[in-house]
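Continuing the series of single-chain predictions for the mutant panel. This is the parent chain; the variants come on the following pages.
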Amino acid sequence: MKKAVLSIAIIAVIALAAVFQMQSVRADSNVESPGKPSNVSAEYQGERSISVSWDASPREGAVVLYDVFYRQSGTSAWTNTNTPYRRPAGSDTYISNSIAVPTLGKYQVRVRACHFTVGSNTVCDNSAIATVQVGAAPAKPTGLKLKQAAHPNHDIHVTWDAVEDTDNYKIRWRAEDASLGDPIFATTTQATVPLDEYGAWVVRVEACNDAGCGKPASKTITTSILPPKQSGLTVETQKDSLFINVAWHDHGDHQYYILLRKPDEGYLGMRGSSRGGSTLRIKVDGYGDWVVGLQSCWPGISWGYVCRHFPIAEKRVSVEGTTPAGMSNFKVEDVSVRHPAIAVSWDEDPHATRYEIKWRKQGEEFKAGAVRQAPRGTTSVEIELPKYSHKGWIVQARACNVNLCGPTVSQNDVQVEGITPGFMDNFEVEDVSARSSAIAVSWDEDPHATRYEIKWRERGEEFKPGNILETPHGKTSVKIELPNSYKGWVVRARACSANLCGPAVSRAVAVTIFVQAPRFDEIQNLRVSAKKGSWFGYVMWGVVENATYYEVWYADRGNIAAGMVSHIENQPPDDYPLPDIHHEFDVPGPGRWEFVVKACNDAGCFALGHTEAFFDEPVEQ
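Parent structure:
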């Protein structure tokens, strides 16, 4: 009976304890408090649950009960778990059953010990607070990949591998030299980062849950204009045609460029372009193997600066042609008249697009300029040679179909001798002097001459290098101005073709002598300077055209005396700094004197100017 009453009392005490909260109540001072539970700790057990343990209160009795409370860090209200607990045999430590919490995160726990007595008030003590982390922030995402969207979209497509215990993912980005902007969130493992320009970007992804966000995964991408899609490149050719038909799949409003190169060489440049099309016909420079490239670009973007760096789809193709045969009936003849020349002829080859003819002297190498290209349809050509040669010439030729050439034919020891012009018939020289000495030379045309050479010299003198004149073919007379000479002149001439000249003919001629008088202008800069205190002075004036010497006359104003100062040559003294005639003189006595200057040559003298000067009495020293 006593045991039943005790059990009922304990149950009543437990029911009564459920209505009390965290505060300690001591209404009756005779009721002893249990003391605070010690060594409180909490352990995360997974699945958002925890377990709490503590040591018994120091004054624990049969009527002491324990309550476990928790709250999320940063909040103020405590929640009573009302969880059962146990104490293993022989241990002073209590362990609670598993306690479920609403979310992941950091929690605080405490244990309250209460002393119940029948018929009296309850006395409780709270333990210290313990902290526990419920769940962990997710791990760092792996497999982060960035992919640029197609032009003209600037966005970046972001993907990554799934991370356990993750509620969502936080994505942030920035330019390479800027700070992170506002995030976007995703519940799947992919997202699109909206951008408005190309450049270098850093993208960061974090996995998050109630416990927070884990370490970020970062990656950098440099965005630029990406090439559009290109596919289906095909090429076709026909024999003996330099054209290639190019086709491809059209993927919309794209700009397509056709490129061309030889194998193992760089591209020769763009050979054609098409917008929105799928075929193009291009021409190559010769027969053989070629590589055709297809490069696509976005409309409105320059190929030269952007698109030329895009990938190129390639196809190798052989462009075949027929090699011409040898040049049949190949002949070379000397057709020199005024110049050394040869005529080369042959029969037409049906596969030839051009004919190549080269020539050289016997014993020499072919020179770069000694080659002639004759177009399709030509069967003869005349070639002018630089000079006649006793060695003879070698002429070679071949027929070519663009860059495919047939065998070379040759004709050796072609003699190109030419015809030497004869005497210059009706060679005449006559004096045609008018205001100056001159001769007229004339002759008959020589059919083999390309030029005529005329030289002249004074009688008894040698021919001088400057006294020679050459006239072209077709001219049969020439006038030559000569200097004055009392000796007479000898004129010699000959007809020449290229480097072959005929015999020289000569004529002697006397030419009228002309002496031109000085120009009758007032003398320039005429001035007289008298030395003070003496009868000494000097006179100066400018040079007069055609004058060979000068006379300076003086007279006093009263005609007391007159005379000539000097006979002066027509050139300034070597030591005089000005380009004027300069001469020193003495006058017979003091006073005002007038000076008259005459400029002279073999035709006479002319009074060209006068001036005055005053001379003082000499000063005794």
